[in-house]
Design brief:
mainly alpha
Length: about 450
């Protein structure tokens, strides 16, 4: 048990989701502009039920990306590659820098891969430390693996910038088509990303010096390495032969490559379904046979339970915020105080707040995007800047919201209360960085 957990008693993520549900209901009952002909409580509960299953497809996508990502890390090839990197992680200071830089780079490419990659790298570092009796600050390493979610929306999978770059996006008639050169590849965003690649790992390194290893257990003692199962005594040769796995895996990868080559959507084609499809093909290809693949799936599947039971609660919260008009009311409240200069900052602040209740970049953009863009047009504020301000706000409070930490917690076996003291410090750092760049550009 580390020092932080002695004074920071935080409920489990599922209990936090329940408490956030109650808070959202109370806010909707008190402030929602929706008029109900009958019982107001029943009306809000109906909104909750309406939203409860709206993330069902997304839930399945997240379960698969976690499952396939974990299974891929258990393959012999990827396991060897990660272990080579882990050999250099002989202390907390080195580990947090390696984890931060790696995670931030992956986050720029895709947020879904970032979630799994950082968690697996942190776990491998913990396993190595536990095996070799190296004292490390494992919670800080785990929190460092989560920092990619503080920068993902400014990367190539950012929901809002990708959405407005499409020729037929839902606000095309209002703001036109906004090219990626004005948002993701703007001088402001590129400068911010490059600065973050230096500042965030440096900050993690400083934290490693403030919170010494001796204050923590030697790595994740509750974890153990994956030990490949022996081949079954009674099985078909097809189960243990390499060629069925290689054939099926390559079929998937070839189809994926052809689809990407023929795509007319550019970077927008890299959605969760496509990533899961490719991960599925890689998992099958890189395990030595289909039996080994299925055993690895069995090893990894237990970590998906948190997503399955908690995502519906957050979908319900999103339903309340959306159908009651509360999300729009919060956004409009911030925007009403805006001027040309401070509209980006207030868009950033409102997005940060709403993200706590609607932890889905695409879902939040659908609600908040029209409001901030309308305000930007009326005030003469550059549309690309308010889009990126929204993106920065949406990603910042991921460091506070445990929703996206579920895959990390499942893989690393860490608890919310162990990483939250550090993710909150990262959030403060991110808030200062984002505010500074929004003021400078």
């Amino acid at each position: 048990m580390d020092k932080n957990s002695k004074f920071l008693k935080i409920p489990s993520p599922f209990v936090l989701a329940f408490l956030l549900t109650l808070l959202t209901l109370a806010m909707a009952l008190a402030f929602s502009p929706v008029e109900s002909g009958g019982n107001r409580i029943i009306t809000m509960l109906n909104f909750w039920q309406m939203g409860f299953w709206e993330l069902l497809e997304f839930t399945g996508q997240m379960v698969l990306i976690l499952l396939f990502g974990h299974t891929l890390a258990l393959s012999p090839v990827v396991d060897r590659l990660i272990n080579r990197l882990v050999r250099y992680c002989t202390s907390t200071s080195i580990s947090v820098v390696v984890v931060c830089v790696s995670t931030l780079l992956v986050a720029f490419v895709n947020w879904g891969m970032c979630l799994v990659f950082g968690a697996i790298l942190a776990r491998k570092i913990g396993e190595n430390a536990s095996r070799n009796n190296i004292p490390i600050n494992y919670p800080l390493i785990g929190a460092s693996a989560y920092t990619g979610m503080m920068l993902w929306h400014g990367g190539l999978s950012g929901s809002a910038p990708l959405a407005v770059s499409q020729a037929n996006h839902f606000m095309k008639d209002v703001i036109g088509q906004i090219p990626l050169s004005d948002t993701l590849f703007s001088s402001m965003n590129i400068s911010l990303l490059l600065t973050s690649l230096v500042v965030v790992p440096l900050f993690a390194w400083l934290l490693s010096k403030l919170y010494k290893e001796k204050d923590f257990i030697n790595g994740p003692g509750i974890m153990s390495d994956f030990v490949p199962h022996h081949e079954p005594e009674e099985s078909s040769s097809l189960d243990t032969s390499a060629w069925p796995a290689r054939t099926l895996g390559l079929m998937i990868l070839v189809v994926g490559a052809i689809s990407l080559w023929n795509s007319q959507q550019g970077l927008g084609f890299l959605n969760l379904n496509y990533i899961n499809f490719i991960l599925f093909g890689l998992c099958i290809t890189l395990h030595k046979n289909l039996y080994a693949f299925q055993k690895a799936i069995g090893e990894a599947i237990s970590g998906t339970s948190g997503i399955l039971i908690q995502f519906p609660l957050y979908a319900g919260i999103m339903g309340i915020m959306k159908y009651s008009g509360l999300a729009q009311q919060i956004a409009e409240g911030f925007i009403s105080m805006s001027s040309v200069r401070d509209l980006p900052l207030l868009s950033f602040a409102s997005a940060s707040l709403i993200n706590i209740f609607i932890p889905s970049g695409g879902g939040q953009w659908a609600i908040q995007g029209p409001i901030i863009c309308k305000a930007a047009l009326s005030l003469g504020t550059p549309i690309p800047k308010v889009i990126m301000a929204f993106a920065y706000g949406d990603q910042l409070t991921n460091m506070l919201q445990p929703f996206w930490a579920l895959p990390l917690l499942a893989i690393t076996k860490l608890r919310v209360r162990e990483i939250l003291p550090y993710t909150l410090l990262f959030m403060v750092l991110g808030g200062l960085l984002f505010t500074l760049f929004l003021l400078l550009f």
